[in-house]
Queue: 3 jobs
Job 1
Amino acid sequence: MSNLVFKAFNSETGLWEDKSIHNPDLISHAGAKASIYQAGHVQLTSALDSESEVLAPTAKALKTVFDSVGVHVNEKDIHLTQTQIDTINLVPTLQAEIKALQAEVQALKGQTPTE
């Protein structure tokens, strides 16, 4: 069985040390690029306009996006603006209205509403 070997920082000694993993599930994708369809390694990006499904955002990119929409993330909770809270609170009402409209459309077509 092959091992996946990597460097890990030892905070007690302050040195980088060789480590290895013997888990075949982790080793099986060692050379593979990750995607939404496959486990593997990801490349990080700080791009804010990427539509890639093979790149992962950095913490800096996420913070920039959260800051731009008024979501403030800290260690304990997420603070939303009042507009965001109002929008979230509207979701059940909108879902009920959509269901009622779908029932009306089906009634006009002579069909029985479906869930």
Note: The two ends are 52 Å apart (CA to CA).
Job 2
Amino acid sequence: MRTRRRSPPPYGVRMQTRQIPPRTSRFDTPFGPLLVRAHDGVVHALRPWRVGDAADDDGSNRPIHDVLDAYLSGDARTLALPCEATGTPFQCSVWSAVTEIGWGELTTYAALAELIGRPGSARAVGQAVAAHPAPLVLGTHRVVASDGRLTGVDADAIVWKTALLRLEGHVVHEGRLIGAEAAGFVRVAA
């Protein structure tokens, strides 16, 4: 039996929807610059600016900059920004749990693992937290190690985590929360 090959449609007839890529902007803060990648007000990435990053914003990210400015100046206690992130079911369950941590509250990777029904998977929870493309929107700075240490993907992440925790009223010294165990937030090992 002979199969017939379909010929491609004539030039210009192909039906394609063109995706408009998110716009990237740089947002300067007292803690260092941020990369903001968004489309139609939905954040696709929000992280520390890195060498080699480039901005192509046409001004459409300005409303996001305004929300960030209000949050980082202490005028707002929430980042009311819609965010689009794709992850595995495990990552999504971790991210969902992180969104339940309120302003000024803390939890540990181990406590998050128990909360999602995966006790003993604190390290995997840490990797899922680190994989989110917009950690500031998610509130990942509120998740710390069981001994009160601040952990992160890189030095920029630790700088941001420290700054955001201080903004929320926590005392951080040399990469460790001070007094958190007394406040009942984190159980710190002796």
Note: The longest strand covers residues 42-48.
Job 3
Amino acid sequence: MKTKLETVKEVNIIRIVKEPSHIPVATDTRYNSMHIVSSKTGQNASQTISLACEQVTDHKFIVASVFHNKLCWTGSWLKGKGLNVTCPDGHAGTCTANVKPTNPSSEYLMGKEIGLDGMCTYDCGVVKVDDVRRFITGCSAVPPGGFDARFSIGFTEERKYPTVTTCTGEVVLPLYLKNYNTFKDIMIKSIDTGPGFGQI
């Protein structure tokens, strides 16, 4: 992935981008549990994988990934034998868990772990209708049959960036953004850094 990141930075340098290391990405996260497999948040996930794809080149390279695993079969087996063990790394041998079972499965936290802090820049500060469509639907063009889903807007009290569920066309806007210019700047950053899959 490091060579792919360098390739993207070289493209940014050729395009004379002010900050070549600022790379717009689209992220998507998959949640797995003992009972369900889902791309929706809030599930009782025991495993979570998040991928970040760059949006600079036509290749759309995967430039970062994070895998969280709450499962440890060795730990479960030892607990079944009556031993008091905790995972991760609470027993001798190889622990397959890398996060505590009580940790939340959060795309936001996984994005921060990848190194995406949502502060990528949009140099010209202009968003086109095509950019908004791609942000909400993940589609670079309107499909021949159009869109079958209705788009919806929701609101949250959480202090986070606007999020989009591309499968359902739902945009969730934070209510703390009271100032128009702040709202505009954050929307531009969200649209620019999050076209495609998942939530930012």
Note: The helical segments are 2-14, 73-80, 107-114, 129-137, 180-193.
